[in-house]
Specification:
The complex is a heterodimer of chains A (about 425) and B (about 775). By secondary structure, chain A is an alpha/beta fold. Chain A folds into three domains: about 210 residues, 3-Layer(aba) Sandwich (Rossmann fold), CATH 3.40.50; about 80 residues, Ubiquitin-like (UB roll); about 100 residues, NADH-ubiquinone oxidoreductase 51kDa subunit, iron-sulphur binding domain (de novo design (two linked rop proteins)), CATH 1.20.1440. Chain A is built from 17 helices and ten strands. In chain A, the strands form two sheets. Chain A has a five-stranded mixed sheet with strand order 3-4-2-1-5. A five-stranded mixed sheet of chain A has the order 7-6-10-8-9, covered by helices on one side. In chain A, a hairpin with an 8-residue loop joins strand 8 and strand 9. Chain A is globular. Chain B is α/β, with parallel strands linked by helices. In chain B, the strands form ten sheets. A seven-stranded mixed sheet of chain B has the order 16-15-28-27-26-17-18, sandwiched between helices. The longest helix of chain B has 16 residues. At the A-B interface, helix 14, helix 15 and helix 16 of A face helix 3 of B.
């Protein structure tokens, strides 16, 4: 039985975990002192060697990303933290920033120092004003404590940190769209190459990292590579936050080594709500293909989930029990993608518009079996054809739901409408349903 | 060497790359996009957002193909408009890859679900890339059974461009053109998802001088020109290559005719001149051809003092009688073709026996005459020199207003490599701002000229005494390239044709006996007038004081010359060759109707000196070119010039060739001392691209996008006068006054700038001069 390994969340239960004093009391900002005595390249090498991989979804090695920044190029470098967490189901960065914003700031200082950036940015989802205020306060406190600004810790290193509120577009979680938005333009993905490491923010070499990736850095600096590698699996090292939501008794953040299974996490979370069984779940947010109860023992690391036909994504485990209509769930997600499609490329813009209409009809029990083939064909014409990965995510729940629950779609047609009791699937106590 | 310097080297070895596309090898320069390499093989990959002159966008996804490099295939089909070729690349298009074929079909299906499919009533129907590619790549029947997105049909984004959002495929060609090429990002994409749409800023319409290009490159019928909307179907039109008559930029044009009527004009494709663009004036200002003031029948002034329509023989006889053995001059105007200018030039020398001929219907000077005949005629500067210039200096020349394609060419280098631009303008116009031009108050501020620098002088430099001389010195000292870019299309050609008092055709000095013998032999005449003739202002003066008896006038607006020009004509015998009724025809004794540009063949010389040859667009037009009428007139006068057709004229010009003798040295002038201003301000002005110009008549939609007239003064001056931005001031001279709203900008306190010929600001008519001292007070 895998145990929880609280690192980022270790002190969330303390009253002042979000303050600079609270953070320092539990050893905060020691990693900065250590890192600033190291050569920047040594910091990069350490993160490379640790095997830390991006926690935002794609799992790209963080140290390698830092290593891509050309050094000695006489250009400014930037570190941009992607805190535009907006994937349905994903809820790890916001609680982390709410409970411990300083661990991110500490990670930013170390990361910026490593890539030789003197200005870093946090692009934060604008709707979560309470988190924005908390991070803002934390930045202010860090400046006051001499941890940001000129000559940090007397080590001769300067860093400015700017907090920017996004205006509520899912696409701005895509790193190049985020950069455009940060520059003041409409957030739409940029053509690559050039990649951000060569021409990112203001056309300067830029690293874009997820909040959790950067926040994981201080612990690695403090405790060393071996400590980090003790956790996780062969190619997916370390600890991470799994966000459990939906029909579970005890939803929330579970910080555990990569490779833990849903069966284990469910046990830690007190299981599926009383009297119900797991029907389907997402391993990493709505844009990762669905899993079912057959997948309870898949190791939740990058390789394990991928081998089983999905993606680890943001480790947002949305749990649905047998009262949930999969067609309805998929329609809701599709509506999200239609609303969030930026409009730049045809397959995503027009495809999501069409998919939603088809799913509405299917949910209402209209159409024939041939429509399912058409739906799959449309998904085939969207996936891998779009400018960025948003559209791939948009069709993932549709394709996977048809794979596992095709008959449920047909049942809608046979039934002339949804066969489910909508009330039964609500999260609230439903004794007797 | 920095990359910027490398860019300036004209001879750069280009690495070639060989790729295999659909089994065929093709070798193209490094950096070529796959879609373009395929074109070289004749393989047409469908596309919408791709445009060879715009940066790749990869937005429409229509051009997906399968690509493998070094044996490794991309997992997904790739947009061939964004991927440059590489060695060992194998491309499979829709012709050989079922994946690419299905991907393209899928995209086409998506593009059509929200498209209204109203081809039957759409202007683009018949010449529409969406329609064509839906045929080649689309499904025969739609699988879409849902509800289409709808928008209000069309909304006007300026008075001349309409936007039908339902038809738009959101390729962003229009927005990218406006931003990348024109530097006018007045339209953008707004909203998101399927509701994304092209839009304008709330209060700023799409008032770019280049907006028409977006209509032309729109791959669907989303952007349409107000003037053309619902006027014609493309398959009813006959398209003829033509040249633009509006300025000396030299744009290649396409004129579309239906049943003898011009329905629209489009930018032609000439990579060395206008690339594929033109300005809105060139595109839309052609209604003057059909306006109600058009003259179609010859007229002579009767004893009653009125003009009466008459027959050609009678009119010609009347004109010949009035000119024969009289002391007469010729005012050519700046809008003639080379052939027509040659006709005037030969007519003046042979039929009238005079060198009193001038094409300059604008302020001019003796210094300019000397500059034109000794310097301007032999310049070799071209657009290409701008492309590789290390610096561009603009003197008496406002490119966006006076030669818009020259502006685009400079802007291209400014945005590509921050080409430094200097300008002697009194304030930073919108064009100057886009170019990031550094303003200089006098020519001594010009530094670091090299042989790669380009100095462009405009016709307005003639208004500053000594300026041409200073430029001449600068060029001689530095070896920089010099270009003379007049505003009007006919001027370079008229200069070459000798429609100027100092020169015979081909740059032959009238005062050089050898040159005269040359021409006299070619023309089979015994002798030619020997002394330098009168310039435009001198001819007018001579007419006024009866030193001349008669004058032949081409397309001239007297108010372009001076406020007194018209009255100076009143006591002379005036023969007017005109396309429309004008101030001149109102006082002329004979009016001979001539053909407008699309009714005749001919050529212009652009500012580079390159011929822009064009054929008759309206084949059965009854109107005749000026040269043909002049030839008839000369016949009647008994001194034939033997130029019965335009092609005969062109042949004669070619056989005569250019003068290879010694040119006369440039006569320098000394700059004027600046006179004490006192409380007055020095007036500066130039013409805006869209203004009250004669050839823009009859096109209200175009006029709707003209920049509004305002007077520019400095902040300190505004405070002194006590006006705020937008308030009216009165500008007056001894001859008159005008009132304009104020625009405060950075400029010298003793200057005021107003547009020269805009609504509410016709400087010559209102104030009596273009440069002078004016009194400025709060109105």
């Amino acid at each position: 039985m895998t145990k929880l390994t609280p690192v980022l969340s270790a002190h969330w239960d303390e009253k002042d975990s979000f303050t600079i004093e609270g953070y320092k009391r539990v050893g905060g900002y020691k990693a900065v002192t250590k890192a600033l005595t190291m050569e920047p390249d040594a910091v990069i090498q350490m993160i490379k060697d640790s095997g830390l991989r991006g926690r935002g979804g794609a799992g790209f090695p963080t140290g390698s990303k830092w290593g891509f920044i050309p050094q000695g190029d006489n250009k400014e470098h930037y570190l941009v933290v992607n805190a535009d967490e907006s994937e349905p189901g994903t809820c790890k960065d916001m609680p982390l920033l709410m409970a411990n914003p300083h661990v991110l700031i500490e990670g930013i200082i170390i990361g910026s120092y490593a890539i030789r950036a003197n200005h870093a940015f946090i692009y934060l989802r604008g709707e979560v004003v309470h988190v924005f205020r908390r991070v803002q306060q934390a930045i202010e406190d860090a400046y006051k404590a001499g941890l940001l600004g000129k000559n940090i810790g007397g080590k001769g290193y300067d860093l400015e940190l700017t907090l920017h509120a996004g205006a509520g577009a899912y696409i701005c979680g895509e790193e190049t769209a985020l950069l455009d938005s940060l520059e003041g333009f409409r957030g739409q993905p940029r053509l690559r190459p050039p990649f951000p490491a060569i021409a990112g923010l203001y056309a300067k070499p830029t690293v874009v990292n997820n909040v959790e990736s950067i926040a994981s850095v201080p612990a690695i600096i403090n405790n060393g590579i071996e400590w980090f590698q003790e956790m996780g699996t062969e190619k997916s090292k370390g600890f991470t936050l799994y966000s459990l939501s939906g029909h579970v008794n005890n939803p929330g953040q579970f910080e555990a080594p990569l490779g833990i299974t849903l069966r284990e996490i469910l046990e830690l979370a007190g299981g599926i709500r009383e009297g119900h069984q797991l029907k389907f779940w997402t391993p990493g947010g709505s844009s990762t293909p669905l899993f079912t109860d057959q997948h309870l023992d898949i190791p939740l690391d990058y390789e394990g989930v991928s081998a089983a036909g999905s993606m680890l994504g943001t480790k947002a485990l949305q749990i649905f029990d047998e009262t949930t209509c999969v067609v309805r769930a998929v329609l809701r997600w599709s509506e999200f993608y239609k609303h969030e499609s930026c409009g730049k490329c045809t397959p995503c813009r027009e495809g999501t518009w069409w998919l939603v209409q088809m799913l509405h009809d299917l949910e209402a029990g209209k159409g024939t079996e041939a429509d399912l083939a058409k739906l799959l064909d449309l998904c085939d014409n969207i996936a891998g054809r779009s400018f960025c990965a948003l559209a791939d995510g948009a069709v993932a729940p549709i394709i996977s739901s048809l794979k596992y629950f095709r008959d449920e779609y047909l049942e809608h047609q046979r039934n002339g409408g949804c066969p489910f009791d909508r009330v039964a699937s609500t999260i609230f106590k439903t004794v007797g349903v | 060497m920095t990359p910027e310097q490398a860019l300036l080297e004209t001879e750069v070895a280009i690495e070639m790359i060989t790729v295999v596309i659909d089994g065929f090898e093709v070798t193209v320069p490094k950096g070529t996009l796959v879609i373009r390499a395929a074109e070289k093989l004749g393989i047409q990959i469908p596309r919408f957002c791709d445009h060879p002159l715009l940066k790749p966008a990869g937005a429409c996804r229509q051009c997906l193909v399968d690509i493998e490099i070094n044996g490794r295939a991309f997992p997904k089909p790739q947009a061939s408009c964004t991927i440059p070729v590489e060695n060992n690349m194998i491309v499979k298009t829709q012709l050989t890859s079922t994946v690419a074929e299905k991907a393209q079909e899928g995209i086409m299906e998506f593009l059509l679900i929200n498209h209204p499919l109203d081809c039957a009533v759409c202007d683009k129907g018949g010449e529409c890339p969406l329609q064509n590619q839906a045929m080649s790549t689309g499904r025969p029947e739609s699988r879409f059974e849902g509800v289409k997105r709808t928008f209000e049909k069309p909304i006007s984004i300026s008075s001349q461009v309409l936007l039908d959002r339902e038809r738009c495929v959101l390729c962003a060609r229009c927005t990218r053109f406006s931003e990348e090429i024109a530097g006018d990002p007045f339209i953008t994409l707004n909203e998101r998802g399927a509701l994304q749409q092209v839009g304008i800023y709330e209060k700023d319409p799409f008032e770019s001088y280049y907006s028409g290009n977006t209509v032309q490159i729109c791959p669907v019928g989303a952007l349409t020109g107000t003037s053309y909307r619902f006027r014609a179907r493309p398959f009813d039109l006959v398209s003829i290559d033509s040249a633009c008559e509006h300025c000396a930029s030299g744009c290649a044009m396409r004129t579309d005719i239906r049943r003898g009527k011009t329905l629209r004009r489009l930018a032609g494709d000439d990579p060395s001149v206008n690339e594929e663009w033109n300005c809105d004036k060139g595109r839309w200002a052609f209604k003057y051809l059909t306006n109600r003031e058009r003259v179609t029948t010859p007229m002579i002034r009767g004893a009653d003092g009125e003009l009466h329509e008459t027959s050609w023989p009678e009119a010609i006889a009347f004109a010949a009688a009035g000119l024969k053995d009289k002391r007469a001059g010729v005012l050519v105007g700046g809008r003639t073709t080379v052939e027509d200018a040659y006709g005037y030039s030969k007519f003046a020398r042979v039929a009238l026996g005079t060198n009193d001929i001038d094409f300059r219907a604008r302020p001019h000077s003796d210094e300019e005459t000397s500059f034109l005949s000794r310097v301007a005629l032999n310049l070799k500067t071209t657009y290409k020199d701008i492309d590789v210039a290390d610096q561009v200096v603009l003197l008496g020349f406002e490119p966006e207003e006076e030669s818009p394609i020259v502006f685009l060419r400079i802007y291209k280098q400014v945005s590509k490599r921050a080409l430094p631009v200097l300008s002697d303008a009194p304030f930073a116009s919108r064009g100057s701002e886009k170019l990031g031009a550094v303003l200089i108050s006098d020519l001594s501020k010009i530094a670091n000229l090299t042989t790669k620098s380009v100095v462009i002088v405009g016709e307005r430099l003639a208004e500053t005494r000594g300026a041409f001389s200073s430029v001449y010195e600068l060029i001689n000292k530095s070896g920089a390239k010099l270009a003379w870019i007049p505003r009007r299309s006919g001027e370079p050609g008229a200069l070459a044709a000798g429609a100027i008092p100092t020169l015979l055709p081909g740059g032959r000095p009238v005062t050089d006996p050898a040159a005269r013998v040359d021409v006299a032999a070619a023309w089979s005449v015994e002798s030619l007038p020997t002394s330098q003739g009168r310039s435009t202002s001198e001819i007018l003066l001579a007419l006024n004081v009866k030193n001349l008896d008669a004058v032949v006038i081409g397309g001239v607006d007297p108010l372009d010359i001076s406020s007194t020009a018209l009255t100076q004509l009143l006591n002379s015998f005036v023969v007017s060759l005109e396309i429309s009724h004008s101030a001149i025809t109102a006082v002329a004794d004979v009016v001979l109707p001539v053909a407008a540009v699309i009714e005749k063949s001919g050529s212009y010389l652009d500012w580079q000196g390159s011929p822009r040859v064009f054929e008759k667009a309206i084949a059965d037009s009854l109107s005749r070119s000026d040269v043909r009428i002049l030839s008839m007139l000369a016949d009647e006068m008994g001194s034939p010039i033997n130029l019965p057709t335009v092609s005969a004229t062109a042949r004669e010009i070619a056989s005569l060739g250019k003068w290879d003798g010694t040119p006369v040295a440039f006569e320098k002038s000394v700059s004027e001392k600046i006179t004490e201003l006192g409380e007055k301000l020095n007036l500066k002005s130039w013409r805006l691209l869209l203004d009250l110009g004669t050839l823009q008549g009859g096109e209200a939609n175009l006029a709707g996008t003209a920049r509004k007239a305002s007077a520019h003064i400095s902040k300190a001056r505004a405070e002194k006068i006590g006006v705020k931005s937008g308030e009216l001031i009165s500008i007056s001279s001894e001859l008159g006054s005008l009132e304009l709203p104020v625009e405060i900008c950075e400029m010298a306190d003793d200057l005021i700038w107003v547009p020269r010929n805009s609504i509410g600001s016709q400087v010559i008519a209102n104030l009596g001069f273009v440069n002078g001292q004016v009194k400025v007070i709060k109105a």
